[in-house]
């Protein structure tokens, strides 16, 4: 039976657990954002805010959005340098576009990725990191690079692959898509 990844699910997931892990930011974010001049960034589905905090520490103006008020309560305690927003990304609307839109392990597909792509400014970067299809995660929490569905005439794809990385206690299998939004269809 599919999981209902709604606000109550995530509030329960994070209850008592948020704020305990001092994780490193995802290496793909560090690699990709490290190549870019700091600007305006969105961390979509920010969880505890590790990536948002890294971006802010490196000069980005960061808006971090998550569905769970429980996890954002802890994130807000970690830093006031980030604009923390509790909202559903399928209905929330930003006040403009971003130079970087990053999402890590968000559990949604289709319309969400279309919305994230719309929020990237021309010349900006979209970074999507998700759970690779496999036995460890329910299908509705995994993605393929095709799930993101970027129009090739509007995007330069710089990374589109599955990667395995070592983490404490084992390995994670990630699907990674990084793309730059073209300024014009022929850029």
UniProtKB/TrEMBL annotation:
**CDD domains xref list:** AdoMet_MTases
One example GO MF annotation: methyltransferase activity
Which InterPro entries does the UniProt entry name for this protein? Methyltransf_25, SAM-dependent_MTases_sf
Gene3D superfamilies per the UniProt record, alphabetical? Vaccinia Virus protein VP39 (3.40.50.150)
Q: Which UniProt keywords apply?
A: Methyltransferase, Transferase
User: Which residue numbers delimit the Methyltransferase domain?
Assistant: 42-124
User: Is Methyltransferase a UniProt keyword of this protein?
Assistant: yes
Tell me the domain of life: Bacteria
GO annotations under biological process?
Answer: methylation
Key word Transferase present in the record?
yes
Under PANTHER family, the record lists: TRANS-ACONITATE 2-METHYLTRANSFERASE-RELATED
Protein name, UniProt field: Class I SAM-dependent methyltransferase
